[in-house]
Amino acid sequence: RRPCTHPRGIGLRMCSLMAHSDTVRDVAPRLEAPLDHVFTNLARYMRKLWDEDGILLDDTNVSGIGSVEDKELRKQAAKGEPAWKDVGDKPGVWIWRVEDFNVVPWPRQKHGDFHVKDSYVVLHVTGGVGPTTPEQFRKIERFLGDRCAVSGDRCALSRADWMGAFSALDSDADGAISRKEWFVRRQGQEEAEVFDMIPKRRFAHVTRAEWEELFIAWDVGQAGEVDLRALGAQGDPAPIERDIYFWLGADTAIDQRGVAAYKTVELDDLFDGTCTQHREVQGQESEGFQHLFKSMRYLAGGAESGFDP
């Protein structure tokens, strides 16, 4: 064995390892893996233990990042934000504006209005609701009438027939059915229950995209056809999906941008990191973001920077 003279750190540890390499070579023939595999695995193990500076990761302040304990601590911190109370557990849209390093709920009647000096955090939740019981799917079957092809124990519904039912109710062809339109065209309590079963972002409106999203959630095999009675027997609602957008106005201050980004991550931590995050910039919004609102407006002014006196 060769003496080990390296002064400290990873060099000392590697030197010590090499000093014992003869022993490793003696043992290696009796191992199932070839010698090069032994050293390859050792190298991988060493990389996990030390960072590039040759310091044990356990001795640094980043060793716990991504651990179960770290995620739980971040979730508990997110629960301490009053603005996140009772949000995100059902379909809908929530908006907060950044004001003086805080997120403040944006009034529902102002959804779609964005000030050019502001930054906003937007949470959009879909799924988690919808018809689940056999009786609920029977109501949809009766609502669709002859659009659903009944054969034995099956009630086959095509995507074209499902979308055709929407078009028949969209009297003004604006791509949305209001609660008023629905009741004018369809009478009776059962039809009202069908309207309430459809997951929608706004209580009194269901859009063509939302109507189609429900069929896509049913058509897990992407066959273009679903069996309503089989879906009723499964009894599983569409899974909850959450998207978080942080929107940045053209004239928003640097501190507002930072708070919006930070709070987006914090809100994601509240839901165990399961959300999809999006960055939106004024004038370049994604199609998915624009579809959250019936219309969008850019307004002058906004909240002052938290750095301003």
From TrEMBL:
Residues 243-289 form the Gelsolin-like domain. GO terms for biological process: actin polymerization or depolymerization. SMART domains: GEL. Pfam families: Gelsolin. GO terms for molecular function: actin filament binding. PROSITE patterns: EF_HAND_1 (PS00018). One of its GO terms (cellular component) is actin cytoskeleton. This is Gelsolin-like domain-containing protein. It comes from Zooxanthella nutricula.
